[in-house]
Amino acid sequence: MGRLTGGDPSLLRRINSAVVLHALRGAESPTLTDLTRITGLSRPTVEGVMEGLLEAGLVVESMPDGGEARRQGRPARRFRFRAEAGHLLGIEIGPHRVSALLSELDGRITGAGSREVSETACADDRLEKVRVMVADVLRRTGVARSSLRAVGVGSPGIVEADGTVRLGTALPDWTGLALGERLRRSFRCPVIVENDANAAAVAEHWKGAATESDDIVFVLAGLSPGAGSLIGGRLHRGYGGAAGEIGALHLLGREATPERLLSTTDRPLDPLDEAAVAAVFAEARRGDARAQAAVERYIQRLVHDVAALVLALDPELVVVGGWAAGLDGVLEPLRHELARYCLRPPRVTLSLLGEAAVATGALRLALDHVEEQLFAVEGTVTSRR
């Protein structure tokens, strides 16, 4: 941040605008008097800020109710934040499905869509599915593409700050893909790309199982499990964006990969064949001994991986999503293992958002970006990195 001085009138205006806008969003149809009291600013200052916000289309004057109009000959002017002044998109790009959530500037979801996609689809085909899905959501909700203020995207892989996937083994042609650049061609607004487990962690903290906790680990269980973590309420990405890649722990002396652990034959499963994995789980529920043994091996591997991350971060809460959220009895083995290894075992719970976790987190990241712009006290937006 540059040095702030009291002699910069444009800086002072930005600070005052941010203060008033914060107060406006937190109040219900406040008057100018209300805003003066809440912010501590002078009446002329608040009036000047409000005129600028009205001109920018971020604020609108709201009509008084009938009772107030009858009590007062000329009721005080009331205002509200125009959440409909812009829209946000949260997109998940996964092995078998792409999905999207649309919201106004307050984060309230107003539209959704999804498309099935083959696990073997190339990057171009997968991104085309995203474009078609987004176009359909915008058409059905009557939202113009020009109304989008920011787009958040959750994707498997290690993601660079510019949205390039440095390493992504879960999707074909994903390693090295300039995902952010490719998607920005379809939108006239910023596109923020994040690892899917990181996005899900943000979602659970916003609207899911972790709303009351600021130090959390979210486990996205799959054949290549990943994790996202928040420390002090802030997303922890690590120096190169690879924090939480617990799927690589088998390289540290635990060579048995998840696709081999879950196999009921001598051959490992195809890492992209989720149908084969689902079949193993189904056979285990029907009582097949080999399938039950495979699922047990997988759970044990998962809980050891999670324990390693918990030991390093000491979170208050572990939220489990992905496949493990649908496995019977996954919580007790995880709690047992964490009690064995950790000095202070965290609470463990299942995701409340299920399949919507990644897209919801991507939407929150888009909202964060817009709020940084709306409430910035400098002339530029602070980087999320």
Give me the number of helical elements: 12
Quaternary status of these chains?
Answer: single chain
Gyration radius, in Å: 24 Å
User: Which class best fits the helix and strand makeup?
Assistant: alpha/beta
Biggest sheet strand line-up: 5-4-3-6-9
Mean pLDDT: 84
Sheet with the most strands? Answer: 5 strands, mixed
Overall strand count: 14
Which strand-content bin applies to the residues?
15-25%
Instruction: Report the uncertain regions.
Output: 1-7, 377-385
Query: What series of H and E elements makes up the topology?
Result: HHHEHEEEEHEEEHEHEEEHHHEHEH
**What's the end-to-end separation, in Å?**
14 Å
What is the percent of helical residues? Answer: 40-55%
What general form does the structure show?
elongated
Descriptive notes:
- The two termini are 14 Å apart.
- The protein has 12 helices and 14 strands.
- The chain has helices spanning 9-26, 32-39, 43-56, 66-71, 123-141, 179-184, 196-207, 258-261, 274-285, 289-313, 331-341, 357-375, and strands at residues 59-62, 78-81, 87-93, 97-104, 109-116, 148-155, 158-159, 165-167, 191-195, 216-221, 226-231, 234-236, 317-322, 347-350.
- Strand 3 (87-93) and strand 4 (97-104) form a beta hairpin.
- It is elongated, with a radius of gyration of 24 Å.
SSE map:
Layout: H1 9-26, H2 32-39, H3 43-56, E1 59-62, H4 66-71, E2 78-81, E3 87-93, E4 97-104, E5 109-116, H5 123-141, E6 148-155, E7 158-159, E8 165-167, H6 179-184, E9 191-195, H7 196-207, E10 216-221, E11 226-231, E12 234-236, H8 258-261, H9 274-285, H10 289-313, E13 317-322, H11 331-341, E14 347-350, H12 357-375
Parallel strand pairs: 3-6, 6-9, 10-13, 13-14
Antiparallel strand pairs: 1-2, 3-4, 4-5, 7-8, 10-11, 11-12
Helix pairs in contact: 1-3, 7-12, 9-10, 10-11
